[in-house]
Amino acid sequence: MQNILLIDDDERLATLLQQYFERHNLALTTATRPSDGLATLAVDSFDLVILDIMLPEMDGFEVCRTIRKQSDIPILMLTARGDVMDRVVGLELGADDYLPKPFEPRELVARIQNILKRAKPSQSQREIFVYGELEIDTTLRQVSIADTPIDLSTMEYQLLELFAKTPGKTFTRDEILNHLKGIETEIFSRSVDILVSRLRQKLKPLELIKTIRGSGYVFVGKIT
Predict the structure, then answer these.
(1) pTM for the full model?
(2) Predicted confidence (pLDDT) per residue in 129-148, tens digit
(3) Cα distances (angstroms) measured from residue 133 to each of 15, 39, 116, 130, 156
(4) Does any domain span residue 139?
């Protein structure tokens, strides 16, 4: 059973989801205040965090920022406003997915299962890619530069793995989005630009991702 932490001040929603999650082999722990959620995350082990944007004490963006300083655990953000900018900001801060309220519990479970599947590749998929100082272990989902570990979110890692498996290939934004999130997810190209920008920052001083004007992005690393 996989452990999910929900940080949302809607107690009714928490009760509903807890009952539904049990049918899908998901154990749900809930926190109605960000401080309680962060404290719980610090002492217990979870596979994913569901995080509402509208919260007391601090908003979900600040909570996401705090979590990302300490962990690369997958984060799925909920937004009641349905504002595209909420989603853009969430992606910029390192969230792995988003879901507007109201939503169907089965869609939430499907999103969670997809994220967890991406986050934990099977042993049979193991490959280690080495591009100079950059090393990517696809089984352990570990990335390092000059033997220094690099913390990546689930989507950042999956993007890097996509690039690393096909260096020299130019990927359009739609190809990247379909690979990362599937065609069932609302697509907007701005999210790809944000994701690539975040990944580039984390790979510095290496410059391995180039922009092809009017086309997309290409990984220019050479296997060593």
Answers:
(1) 0.61
(2) 899 999 998 877 889 999 99
(3) 48, 36, 28, 7, 18
(4) yes
